[in-house]
Each structure stands twice: as C-alpha cells, then as structure tokens.
Model the fold of this input.
Amino acid sequence: MPFYSHAARHRYVTMMKESKLPDGVIVALMGWESKNGSGLSMVSVYSDLDESDMLADYFDEDGIKSDIKVGTLSDVGGSTANFSRR
Done:
C-alpha cells in the first residue's frame, strides 16, 4: 500500500480523538482556524473514527458504562515541546 504524507494528518487527528482530547484542543494543536467553527468541522473531516467507534467507549450491553476512560495529550505520544503556533 503506498504511503502519502497527508495520511499522517488523518492518523494524528484520529489518535487524538481516540485519546479523548476535546475537539477544541485538537483544533489548536493542528493550527486550524477556530473562528466560525471552521476548525471544529476539520476535526470530523480528518478523524477516521465513526459513531460506532465512539459509542463503544460510553455504552455496553448494560447501558452507560461507569468506567469511562479519560485521555490526556501524553496518550497521543510524541513530544509537544517543539510545537509552535503559526
């Protein structure tokens, strides 16, 4: 399967969503425009998760889970020390 660098952006956003980072944090880390909600819409464009992936985090066959996972930026991996805003 060929690799193209744009796929890295999709994977990174997906990893942040899997780590339960809020969309606003993802927008800031990606350097997307936060005015008018345009950056928030980019999160859904670049995340490769769908609703069924996310529902399993909150619900099971008995209803709402009581042990919901909470993620942090360090769960995504890598260092943010060199992160700079545009």
